[in-house]
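User: I want to check something. If I give you two sequences, will you return the structure for each one separately, not as a complex?

Assistant: Yes, each is folded on its own. Here is the first sequence with its structure:
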Amino acid sequence: MDSFGQHPEETGCGYEPEDARMHPVLRHSLWSLLLLPGLCGTAWAATDPAATVAAPFSWQQFLGPFHMVLLHLPIGFLTLVALLELWTWRKPSTERRQVIQFGLVLGVIATGLTMILGYLRASDGGYDELTLQSHRGWGIAGGALVAIACALHALLLKHPAPGGLVGFRLILFTGFLCLSVAGHHGGSLTHGTGLLTENAPDLLRSWANHPQEAPPASSNDPALAAIRSVLDQKCVSCHGAEKQKGGLRLDTRTAALAAGDSSRPALTPGDPGRSEIVRAILLPRDHDEAMPPEGKETLTPTEIEAIIHWIQTGAPE
């Protein structure tokens, strides 16, 4: 006891009445509840494959998609240069010549970066090799001609020569034409060769060598015709004859039965659980392997159910 007749623990420095103390069982239960979310999160992270097996970082896979961002810049710069050159051809101007040279330099830089990123993009595979070679060949030819035109124009600014501008214009417009053809093949790689003609009149389709395809005999079944329509509209652009993301094709039944990069076929008749298409369309939208990818029209629940039922019944044609 102190001078006031009280025990030290009762002076307010740590005294806790017996009836105010929390029962040990209740206290331990409360701590368990507080720790439960953390324990659950840890267990989920330990069992989630996406969390435990992170894909190694790849500069190629990171930079490759930027090809789609830059590919419009060369055409834009060179279109401006071509228009200014036509104007200057009719009305010569020293000031416009300087602007043309600046546009050429930007065009060469943009073309070079686009070609490098395009190489990285193509390294992922999944594209029709013939169309890819045409796209690459025309692009390299166009880029080389534009670079030559830029160097020649810079030389002519310092040392004008008779007939020099004629040669410059010939090289410039030939390079512009090559890049335009390369852009067309690039569009075919991404969207298919029928992008510009699939909804054209029959006469134009025939002239472009894209005749209207006759529907298969099995399309008399409305359910099968609906399945074919869903696949054509939402799947074949990335998994068709000209582009096979993940090594999978869905444009024909025979091609769909072949295994892709994951060693699993897109289609396993009678077994939706072993069909890669079913796994991909059931993944959450924010998953990297979800199909269709972000930016594309998603499948409706009715369409997903129809595809699963179609596979369960043997995926008839």
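And separately, the second sequence with its own structure:
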Amino acid sequence: MICDIDLMLKEREINHLVDIATGDGWFAKELDLVFQSVNKITGIDIKNNGIDQFYQHIGNSKGNFICSDIHSYHWNDQDIDCIGISLSLHHLSDIESLLKKFYDILANNGLIFIREMITDNLTPAQKNQKTFHHLKAKMDQVVGTYHVNTYSLDNIHSMLEQTGFIKIYEQIDTNSQKCIKTQEVIESRLKVLKETAEKNYQGKIPPKISSEIRQLEKNIEQYGFSPPPIYLYIGLKL
């Protein structure tokens, strides 16, 4: 998906790229490949379990992994000219305020890249992925982890309208042909849900949750499982 915009951005030099909820740094690496050069990459994540992979992707010379809650992070460096957020809007509370904050800290002519799954025009297999994600979000909320349902495209547009960013590019990868029906996938997805339910409900899984997992299993066996549509937005701060 990122490769489609290479011609638009390849001549641009980025001094400081910040990747929000960076995980293993995969999206930061993708953005690093887009630009002519990136001098410094900061990855911020509330968990540090991806730190080793982050430095493998980015390297020690220009990479800096910071383990921090994004809401309490102190933005001392104002020389930031690119921000990336991939598949993480639904893990960030008070997202509208955060997006406004990102606008404020970006240098003039800075860019924001947002990559997020959406709920629009789903195939039956993608509806199974949505159900899986929403069940996982519900379980995470039980133990205080912020995790909400997948946003629609209108939801995301509404968030961005109030930020000040000017849209310079957007694209949707429908993923509509990527239906997976292998038993391995079915078992791995259901294993994640069952293990999460067992852990988060401390062995006392509500009957409604158990019923929803069983129904999802039937639906996956019938329709398969597919990655969701992915929306890419690039915004500019003037």
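Because they were folded independently, the notes below concern the second chain alone. The chain has a mean pLDDT of 92. Residues 45 and 67 are 5 Å apart (CA to CA).
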